[in-house]
Amino acid sequence: MKLTKTSFIQYIQCSKALWLAHHKALPKGEFDIAAKYRKEEGYTIEKLAYQLFSDGVISAQPENGDNEVVKNLPTSAASTIFQAVIRNEYTECRCDIIQYNSSTQKWDIYEVKSGTNAKEEHLFDLAFQVYCFQQANIPVGGVYVVHVNKEYIFDGVHIEPEKLQTVTDVSERVQVIMPDMPALVEDALSTLKKNEEPNVLILKQCNSPYPCIFKEYCWGNIPNESIYELAGKLNDDYLLELVEKNQLLIKDIPESYLTRKDSKRHWESITKKAVSFDSRKIKDELQQLIFPLYFLDYETFSSAIPRYKGYHAYQQVVFQYSLHILEESGNLDHKEFLATTNEDPSTALVNTLQSHIGATGTIIAWNMSFEKRCNDELARLCPDRTAFLEDVNSRMYDLRRIFQDGLYVDRRFKGSSSIKNVLPVLVPDVSYKSLVVQNGNAASFSWWEMIDRKLTATEQKKRCEDLLKYCGLDSLAMVKIYQYLIGL
Questions:
Q1: 240 and 186 within one domain
Q2: What DSSP assignment string belongs to 101-124?
Q3: 5 contacts 94 by C-beta, under 8 angstroms
Q4: pLDDT tens for residues 140-172?
Q5: Global pTM exceeds 0.90
Q6: Residue 88 bridge partners (DSSP)
Q7: 12-66 pLDDT tens trace
Q8: Residues 158 and 227 grouped into a single domain
Q9: 53 close to 80: Cβ distance less than 8 angstroms
Q10: Distance CA 459, CA 454 (A)
Q11: Which domain holds residue 261?
Q12: Is residue 282 in a domain?
């Protein structure tokens, strides 16, 4: 059994995950739209990176390995190989890009990533590749991460790989890891050979740096209101100590371990078994808002490769909004916008929004920093609407603050101030459960599939309805929560 690059990265995150991946059936689950998109985008990013190396060729020996081809350079025709496979007795890696450096007479290794910087987990990825080269007696020179340049702005004509992507030299950082590699590889191989499932303490590795596909399996016996759910999280030392003692409930955490206000509030809501709220402070806060109240929610899409002129990598494309307008009389009106074509929606969206928002009145959002950032970007794209968008930002109020600041605490929120946690507790008759689209991530990629995949007219109509229902409920949920709070 060979240790591959993918398996080694799995081991670095959690040795139990490595063992499960090779000895248990992988969890069955729907490969959702978001995962499909990210996978496809990753392939596209890699192909764009190839264009940075004009003399590159695709590996001709992926099944047998490229060891001999690589060793024979520089007499071989190709000095740059894409997807080269280095195969040894116990290890194997596939390299995104390798390039022979005639000056050093060594191979430089390039790992392509769709993120915007070189991360710690990328270093182990590259360290394993260097280790495979060393085992094959192939000299390695520089080690690099090719990643996305977030400052690149698309000109609307064609993507320029040399501007979209940037190369970061991580050679020194990888060299720091190399002395540990023989022992790490040996332990990973030993883990693979075990007949018994490894006993690994559950700490923070289940979600970092990647969500583990075996989390549901491993967490089968984790109780409700566990220490893993604590708002603000425990520091590593305290978490390890409690797990080793098998003290897994929030109520059993010593008070002295709670170093954050949100952690302390969450702990108290469970230990005291009481809902805590300050109705006077809540009312004082909300009574400062100016009618009409505009409850605004955006839906957005972002990608590593910018899609429209003037956009940078990972910039949010605001494609939809829902706006509920509450008059002092109690009258409630609803306005909305949804882009349905594969064109930059910014101008149409801002113009429509301006027609729906009057010159006075508080604009309410949930986690308003997000909407404000979107408005800042929209102002850059629509400079003639800058004054309007700046005015919107200056009038904005974050309803989430009530819960973030601890003015209303309920253990059923599970330590979170997300609207998805607050709504079912305060307004149980309003729910997302019956919706086809139930969260922002699903909305984002459902929209992109709709405008990019050329759905049938019937499918497009249904997709529009689903998106409008979801975004509409986001803004209505704020109305309902506001009405509940003001009625305390």
A1: no
A2: ETTTTEEEEEEE-SSSS--HHHHH
A3: yes
A4: 999 999 999 999 999 999 999 999 999 999 999
A5: yes
A6: none
A7: 999 999 999 999 877 655 446 777 888 899 999 999 999 999 888 887 665 666 6
A8: no
A9: yes
A10: 9
A11: 223-271
A12: yes
